[in-house]
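queue> pop job 88
queue> type: inverse folding (structure -> sequence)
queue> payload:
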């Protein structure tokens, strides 16, 4: 039996989700915590994905960064060269191409609510490292 768990790391403007198996030696998806997604230029983060066909998620929240304040929409603004990225609110999702090992990147925007209920834009460039299982 495989037990699954999810860990959420929250920072200003976004939360990161890591999900994995308690039987795995290395988590299939790891995203570094980041800040500054609501700045005009956005921010950059690093994602490490074990290429097992598992989707890696970045969960996005407004300000304050809480589960009760999820992003309600978003889009991929730069597609990866070696995988698939899509935005399914409140998550930016990345899946590497089958058999690919190496570097990739994508960029997304998400839209959520700010402290005064105004819409805030989150912009994140994701540098991806895909490793063999």
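queue> result:
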């Amino acid at each position: 039996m495989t037990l699954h768990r999810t860990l959420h790391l929250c920072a200003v403007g976004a939360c990161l989700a890591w999900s994995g198996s308690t039987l795995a030696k290395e988590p299939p998806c790891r995203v570094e915590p980041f800040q500054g997604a609501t700045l005009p230029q956005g921010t950059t983060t690093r994602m490490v994905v074990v290429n097992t066909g598992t989707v890696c998620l970045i969960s996005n929240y407004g300000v304050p960064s809480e589960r009760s304040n999820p992003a309600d929409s978003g889009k991929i603004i730069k597609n990866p060269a070696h995988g698939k990225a899509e935005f399914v609110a409140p998550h930016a999702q990345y899946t590497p191409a089958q058999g690919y090992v190496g570097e990739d990147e994508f960029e997304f925007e998400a839209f959520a609510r700010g402290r005064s209920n105004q819409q805030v834009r989150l912009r994140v460039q994701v540098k991806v490292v895909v490793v063999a299982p």
